TrEMBL record:
The gene is gloB_1. This is Hydroxyacylglutathione hydrolase. It comes from Devosia equisanguinis. Belongs to the metallo-beta-lactamase superfamily. Glyoxalase II family. NCBIfam families: GSH_gloB. Residues 13-171 form the Metallo-beta-lactamase domain. It catalyses: an S-(2-hydroxyacyl)glutathione + H2O = a 2-hydroxy carboxylate + glutathione + H(+). CDD domains: hydroxyacylglutathione_hydrolase_MBL-fold (cd07723).
Length: 255
């Protein structure tokens, strides 16, 4: 039986996710941005929350842990390297670990940079990647705690996943990401097409996720920091891709 993913808005621009293992009936929230939004999604689906999987310690991803845990008795799983920053964790995980939700398995992958202990959850069988703030459509999260080298290595690990992978990220930032991406990579036909699609989706009031990883590999400048044209844009021909990645991140910060 399959994994069902329910997507809903939370807070001002967060995405909320429920993942439901049909075989067992177990349901997990990916992060806990807002209790009311998660409760409403559960009621709409007729599901009961059994688990919460946390990607990183920022308040807009953990604020509802205490309320949801008290209401449902949910198991809370989160990154071992941020255990001192997240209250209410029951189970600590890190890179290479596996989380089970009934018959569904999620691989835990370390993606440091946005925060040092940030992890993502990858369901290989269903082709679902819950990337939170490590990877956005056409972008990545701000580098609040990490350094360019490890963050670039984490992005490359995600880039190595299958093209057909569906990516569910933490925020609706795609339209602004597209504007910046076109500024530094204006001749990218895949990016141009994606930007047009994004504009149409947003005009229609629709979300831009999930997105396919294969398309993002070709359109997202952060996933293409080793592309010669992006190195040329920053005058960094022959430089280490991590240096180009840093320049792209700085460029986006100041865009």
């Amino acid at each position: 039986m399959a994994l069902i993913v329910d997507v809903f808005p939370a807070r001002s621009d967060n995405f909320g996710y429920l993942v439901h293992d049909q075989a067992s009936g177990r349901t997990a929230a990916i992060d806990a941005p807002e209790a009311a939004a998660i409760r409403n999604a559960l009621i709409h689906r007729g599901w009961t929350l059994t688990d919460i999987f946390i990607t990183h310690h920022h308040i807009d991803h953990v604020e509802a842990i205490a309320e949801l845990k008290a209401a449902f008795g949910a198991r809370v799983v989160g990154p071992r390297d941020e255990a001192d920053k997240i209250e209410g964790l029951d189970e600590l995980v890190g890179d290479g670990d596996t989380i089970e939700l009934g018959d569904t398995s999620f691989a835990v992958m370390a993606t440091p940079g946005h925060t040092l202990g940030h992890v993502v959850f990858y369901n290989a069988e269903g082709g679902h990647l819950f990337s939170a703030d490590a990877l956005f459509s056409l972008g990545v999260g701000r580098m609040f705690e990490g350094t360019p080298g490890p963050m670039w290595e984490g992005v490359k690990r995600l880039r190595a996943l299958p093209d057909e992978t569906l990516v569910y990220c933490g925020h609706e930032y795609t339209e602004s990401n597209a504007r910046f991406a076109l500024f530094i990579d204006p001749d990218n036909a895949v990016l141009q097409k994606r930007a047009d699609e994004v504009k149409a989706l947003r005009l229609a009031g629709r979300a831009t996720i999930p997105f396919t990883l294969g398309e993002d590999k070709r359109a997202n400048p952060f996933m293409r920091a080793d592309a010669p044209e992006l190195a040329r844009h920053y005058g960094l021909e022959g430089a280490d891709p991590a240096e180009v990645f840093a320049a792209i991140r700085k460029g986006k910060d100041n865009f």
